[in-house]
Amino acid sequence: MESSQGNSISQNNLDELLMQSTSAIPTSRVERLLRERELRRSTRYSHSNEESKDSNGDADMSISINDLYVPDGERGNREEDFFEGNASVKNLMDGYETQGARVPKQRLLVVANRLPVSAIRKSEDSWVLEISVGGLVSALLGINEFEARWIGWAGVNVPDEVGQRSLTKALAEKRCIPVFLDEETVHQYYNGYCNNILWPLFHYLGLPQEDRLATTRSFQSQFAAYKKANQMFADVVNEHYRDGDVVWCHDYHLMFLPKCLKEYNNKMKVGWFLHTPFPSSEIHRTLPSRSELLRSVLAADLVGFHTYDYARHFVSACTRILGLEGTPDGVEDQGKLTRVAAFPIGIDSDRFVQALELSQVKDHIKELKERFAGRKVMLGVDRLDMIKGIPQKILAFEKFLEENPIWRDKVVLVQIAVPTRTDVPECMYPHSHAKLY
């Protein structure tokens, strides 16, 4: 007998599960949820112990947030169990599997504020493209089982049609689709609302303390630009969307995008993933547009976070601020369920292993070994912004050497710091253009 996932289950095991599930009728909602969870566990256990598999040999590795919400007495190590085998893209693909095999090369539209390449204009119709630096780019380079298209801003203002056409053509070779934002929109949307309002708040830094009337006026204009920019992203997505595509929206820059996309096509598969912390409901409550942003995100089919705590904070904000019901699978609003889960991000490790074989990499490794010969090397790689704790790291290293003089001249700290948000003074260290050694 075949299960809905295409894995074999022996008749005896299935009969046993059915007998267990019907041995008693749950008398409460909590008991029913616990019974369903135990049934899923038993089913997964039967799958993992079955010797025979389908021809594709793939096991279902998706785990829902059911495994997160358990009674306090049973919580134990469930958080650690939850992180095993998660893949956010696989959860989005629930509606696109055939019996025994996945549809080959499913189209995936990745939508982020910035494209994975930066455009530099050389002439009226000539552009040079350089790979952008960032964690999102590094993480998504490992996705190769989908036919991916990346939609985002190229990081440059292109007001003329000739430049837009030529840049669109150049980006198409990289499977990228540009969203053209004018300078004022970028200033109000990206430098303003995204990095002056949302970014500090999501990192528990609070809203900017300025003159109240001036803050209110700037907030309103920045929020309007934020909604306008999100609508512009949605217009481009809708232009290139095909039936069956999965749209994957990224980060706090595009919290309005799921709602905009669903207004175009309610059947569109939409996921949204946050690459920063999501604050507790008490912190999120201080944001004037809190309810509107939450409801816009809830328009997505799946909402993802890095950790269990961030997912729990989001569900808590929806229940306490919007008055909605948090369920084991996510958040329910008038019969519409938005799944909420944690998906720890990773990198394409094979790329790093292969890079070790490059001659220029080998030469650089040799140079570093000669430079730091006989000393322990401590390496730090961080973005150069206030939340990364780089000054604290240097002070801690200084204190270590003061308290352990035997290690002086025997250990060295190498700090690699990548400048970020250079147009937003609030997010930068003073003199952050200087190199750290």
Automatic annotation (TrEMBL):
One example of a Gene Ontology biological process annotation: trehalose biosynthetic process
Biased composition (Basic and acidic residues): 29-56
Region Disordered: start-end pairs: 1-80
GO cellular component term of the entry, any: cytosol
Keyword match Mitochondrion: no
Polar residues: bias regions: 1-26
Enzyme class: transferase
Alphabetical UniProt keywords: Glycosyltransferase, Transferase
Gene Ontology molecular function: alpha,alpha-trehalose-phosphate synthase (UDP-forming) activity; trehalose-phosphatase activity
EC code: 2.4.1.15
Similarity comment: family membership: In the C-terminal section; belongs to the trehalose phosphatase family. In the N-terminal section; belongs to the glycosyltransferase 20 family.
Protein name as annotated: alpha,alpha-trehalose-phosphate synthase (UDP-forming)
Species this chain originates from: Handroanthus impetiginosus
